[in-house]
TrEMBL record:
BP-aspect Gene Ontology terms: methylation
Protein's name in the database: Methyltransferase domain-containing protein
GO function terms (MF aspect): S-adenosylmethionine-dependent methyltransferase activity
Family annotation (Pfam families): Methyltransf_11
UniProt-listed InterPro entries: 23S_rRNA_MeTrnsfrase_RlmA, Methyltransf_11, SAM-dependent_MTases_sf
Organism of this sequence: Micromonospora eburnea
Keywords on record: Methyltransferase, Transferase
Domain Methyltransferase type: 55-141
Taxonomic superkingdom: Bacteria
Length: 255
C-alpha cells in the first residue's frame, strides 16, 4: 500500500471510531499510556465500601464507578455531556447508581451535606465551593486530575510551539480547596509515558480528549497530521507524556 493510501486509511479509521463514554479500548495495539502508581479505581473502591452516600462528578460513561465492588446504599453520578449520560445510565445499572445530567458550572443539584464521599476522575473543572457544600462534616473529596502541560508534545506536534501552561497545577488545586474551607490531606503527582503507534490512534485520541487540541478536526489539521504520520513511520512511534495528580481534601468534622 502506498504511503498516501496508508495515511488516508488510518485517519479514516480514527475519524470513524465512536468516542462516546470514557473507554479507550479501541486503542488496544495502537497506543499505550502508563497508569498512575496510586491506583485510583482501587482507592475509590475501598472508600466506597466505608460510606453511606457517595457522588461521582464527571462520571463520563461510568466506567470507573461501575467497577466498585461494594457500592454504598446511596450512589449518584453527574455528567454534563449528553452522549455520555446515556452510556453512564446503562453502565451504572449494575451498581445501582442514579445518573443526573447537569449543564455547565452553576451548581450541583443536591442539598448541603448530602454525601460522605465525592470522587472525580479527570474533571473538566473542579467546583470546589460546591464540593465543600455537598460534603457532610468529615467527608472527603478524592480526585485524580489532569496536570499542567499534559500531552504537550502531542499538542505542539499539531499546533506548533505553545506558551507555558498557566492552569491545572497541583498547587493551584490545593489553594482552591483550602479557599473553599477544605483541608488537603494527600497530594501525589506522576508523569506518564504515552506511546502512539499510528496516526489513526492520534486522530481518535484528539477527537476524544478534546482539550489536547481545541477545535480539532481532520480537515483543519490535515497537514500537521501528515507530518506526524511521516514521523511515526520514520521513528516507529510518537511519544508524549501525560501529567496526573491525586488530591484528597476533607471537610471539617465539626462544621
Amino acid at each position: 500500500m502506498s504511503a498516501d493510501r496508508d495515511f488516508e486509511r488510518l485517519i479514516a479509521e480514527g475519524a470513524a471510531a465512536p468516542v462516546d463514554g470514557w473507554d479507550f479500548s479501541w486503542l488496544a495495539g495502537r497506543a499505550t499510556e502508563e497508569r498512575p502508581p496510586w491506583g485510583y479505581a482501587r482507592l475509590v473502591g475501598a472508600r466506597m465500601a466505608t460510606v453511606d452516600a457517595a457522588l461521582d462528578v464527571d462520571t463520563g460513561g461510568g466506567e470507573v464507578l461501575a467497577e466498585v465492588p461494594a457500592p454504598p446504599p446511596l450512589l449518584v453520578a453527574v455528567e454534563a455531556w449528553p452522549p455520555n449520560v446515556a452510556v453512564a445510565r446503562r453502565t451504572l445499572r449494575r451498581v445501582g447508581a442514579t445518573v443526573v445530567q447537569v449543564s455547565g458550572r452553576p451548581s450541583l443539584p443536591f442539598r448541603d451535606g448530602s454525601f460522605d464521599l465525592v470522587v472525580s476522575r479527570h474533571p473538566v473543572e473542579t467546583w470546589w465551593d460546591e464540593i465543600a457544600r455537598v460534603l457532610r462534616p468529615g467527608g472527603s473529596y478524592l480526585s485524580q486530575q489532569i496536570g499542567a502541560g499534559t500531552m504537550r508534545e502531542l499538542s505542539e506536534a499539531i499546533l506548533g510551539p505553545l506558551p507555558p501552561p498557566d492552569t491545572r497545577h497541583p498547587e493551584q488545586a490545593v489553594a482552591a480547596a483550602e479557599a473553599a474551607g477544605l483541608r488537603v490531606v494527600d497530594l501525589r503527582t506522576a508523569t506518564l509515558r504515552a506511546v502512539f503507534h499510528d496516526i489513526g490512534a492520534v486522530v481518535y485520541f484528539l477527537r476524544k480528549v478534546i482539550w489536547t487540541v481545541p477545535g480539532f478536526t481532520v480537515e483543519r489539521h490535515h497537514e500537521a497530521l501528515r507530518r506526524l504520520h511521516d514521523r511515526i513511520r520514520a521513528e516507529g512511534c510518537f511519544v508524549a507524556h501525560a501529567q496526573r495528580f491525586l488530591i484528597e481534601a476533607r471537610a471539617d468534622s465539626t462544621r
